[in-house]
Amino acid sequence: MHIRVITIILSILCFSFIAEKENEYKIGQKSVTYFDKSRDRPLVTEIWYPTTQSLSHKELKSKRKQLFKTINTIPNARFLDKKMPLLLVSHGTGGNRFSLTWFIERMVKEGYIVVSLDHYGNSTFNKLPREFVKWWERAIDIQYVLTKVLEDKELGSKIDASRIGGVGFSLGGYTNIALAGGYVDRTYRGDSKINDNREMPPEFPSTDEVIDFDNDSLIISSYHKYKDVVKDQRIKAFFVMSPAIGFGFYSKEQTKEITAPIFIVAGKGDSNTPIKDNALHYHSLIETSNIYLFNENVDHYVFLNEATKFGKETIPAITIDHPDVSRKEIHKKTLDLAVDFFKKNMLHNSCDKE
C-alpha cells in the first residue's frame, strides 16, 4: 500500500516537473546548409530545439508582409543539457522547411529537437522540373541530413539516437513512407484507376522544356540508383499527413519491408490527394499503419501553417478552408495525435533525467 502511494506521489511530481519544464521551453533555431557532394545537392536545413534561454534584446520585426503566421524563436540559443528525441520533417511539393512550423513549435515545446529541410529542386525557393518527379531522392535528402546531424559534435551529442521519428505532409508523406521501406513503382501501368491519375502537381514549375517522365535518362538513372536504398532503419516511427503518390503503389509487395509504425492523418474532403487513392490506399497496404480521418469539409492544404490576412488575399487556394473548418483546431487535434503516437512508439520517457 505504501509503495503504491509513493509511486503515485512520484508520478504526480514527475508530471508536474515535466509540465513546468515544458512551459518554460522556448524555441532555439539554427540554420545550416549541408552539401551532398555525391549528388551535387545543397540541402538548406533548419534546426529547432528546446531551450530555456530568453532573448537578451528585442528583435526588430520584419516589415516584409508574411503569407503565413510565424513562430517566435531564439537564434543560436543554448541547448538543454540532456539527450532529446529527434523528428525529421519533410515538406510537400513546392513547399519549404517553414511550411509546418505549427507542428514544429508544439513538438519542440514537448521536448523534441526538430530538423526540417528544403528538398533540393522541389521547394518554394528552388524549383527544378525534374526534381518534382524524382520523388525517391527526397528520402536520400533526409538520410544525408540525418547523418550530418548525428555527426555534428554539438547537436549530435544532444540527440537520443534510439528515438528518431519522421514527419511529412503530402509528397513529404510519401517521403516518409519510402524511408519506412515503401517501394514506389514509377513504371507500373495497370487497370487500377489509381495508376491512371498521375498528374503533375499544381505547384509544378512552368517550363518550356518537355520532360518525358517514362523515358528521360536522368530520371530513369536516378530511379535505378536510389530506389532500393530509401529505407532508413534509424527512423523508428512515422507520422504522415495527406500522403501523396498513391498511384505508385498497387501491391502489398511494395510495402512488405515496412516494419515501423506509421500514423496517417488526412481529410475526407482532400481534393488534391483524394483519400481513396492515397491515405486509405496506403493504409490498406501497410500492415503497421493506423489512420485518422477528418470530415468531408477538410481539404488538403489545411495542414499548412495558418495564413495571415495578406496570405488569404494573395494565395486563397492554399490558405482558405471551408467555412466550417478551423485550421487552428485541425492543427490542435493533429498535434495531439502526433504527441501520443510518438510517445507510444519511440519509448519517450515521461521523466527524462537532466
Keywords:
11 strands; nine-stranded mixed β-sheet; 354 residues; 10 helices; alpha/beta; two-stranded antiparallel ribbon; Rossmann fold
The CATH topology assignment is Rossmann fold
Q: Termini, distance in Å?
A: 30 Å
What proportion of the residues form beta strands (DSSP E)? 15-25%
Largest sheet: 9 strands, mixed
* Total E-strand runs: 11
pLDDT averaged over residues: 88
The gyration radius over C-alpha positions equals: 21 Å
Briefly, what CATH class?
Alpha Beta
CATH structural architecture: 3-Layer(aba) Sandwich
Shape: globular
Structural class: alpha/beta
Number of separate helices: 10
Listing every helix as H and every strand as E from the N terminus to the C terminus, the arrangement reads HEEEEHEEEHHEHHEEHEHHH
